[in-house]
Amino acid sequence: MPTLRCEPIRQWEIRMNIGEIARRAGVSRSTVSYALSGRRSVSAATKQRIQAVIDEVGYRPNAAARALKEGRTRTLGLVVPPASLRLTDTQLEFVASVVEAAARADLDVLLSPSGGDHDRSFERLISGRRVDGVILMEIRLEDERVTLLQQAGLPFVTIGRTAHPEGTFWVDVDYAALVARCVHHLADLGHREIALINRSAELAATGYGPAHRAQTAFTEAVRQRGATGIDLPCADDPAAGEECFAQLRERHPEITGIVTINEAALPGLQRGIERAGVAVPRELSVAGVAAAHLAERFRPRLTAADVPALTMGAHAVELLQERIAAPENPVRHLLLAPPISLRDSTAPAPLPRT
Prior knowledge:
- The protein is α/β, with parallel strands linked by helices and 354 residues long.
- 45% of the residues lie in helices and 16% in strands.
């Protein structure tokens, strides 16, 4: 496994030799430290002198010394939502897949939160050159973090994409296509009153891409099928999922089909359905976009497009390595649209009551 760390250099590894290196190079210990860690700028000539001493004394370079010689830290930055916000299972899978893919490439991963009170952490990540490149999660349609990375000239890849992703490397799930497929699947089964349980209104207000693309695709798909659609925002937790379903049954009892992209709300949605005594799929069909293990855990098993989070993280690391090694290469991206896995939660619409 790679090292998940808050600093790009393990100081205990160099204390043994740093004084000798400084003496022979005719510089201070702090200058050697800065040259190895990259925390402050050191002239090219001084770096070369320090490296010559390292070579002369036969010092076995750790990651930081290799960074000095190669001009790289062998560390990737992964920008995640703040710890104060509970990560969804899919987000955690993204993190795990990035770490695993980095390990296979002998790279470390430096986690950095962004958003809210954590923007300074993100700014330090890109201004201090503590990483060779950055993978950025939870992309907004208009994302100032992308702009900052472009201005800094630091290689980066996004998991998700902005409204205008031209010129950037990214990996994303085609939420628009998948939500539309779910609507068409329900419409093919005869459902004409369909609801979308989306992500939270607060998240959508920030310009969060999947929420906006899902809502737009849902509206267009129900229009195409001559159905009636209800878009219901829902916070990312089970309690909110249960409350959303209660509101839906109270205000729109005619709904016979639900599409959801809010996997964190799924356990609460199931509780709400069970509490209301609604039979799935005989009385209500549910389809969505979710991680496969969550779809399998839903009762009955959820008909869903299974988000390939593990694959996405690995592809993001691969693209970032390419971006770092060959910045002149053409821009590449990967838009994934997995098929709908037909399980047990959808069936023909119930006959109208007479």
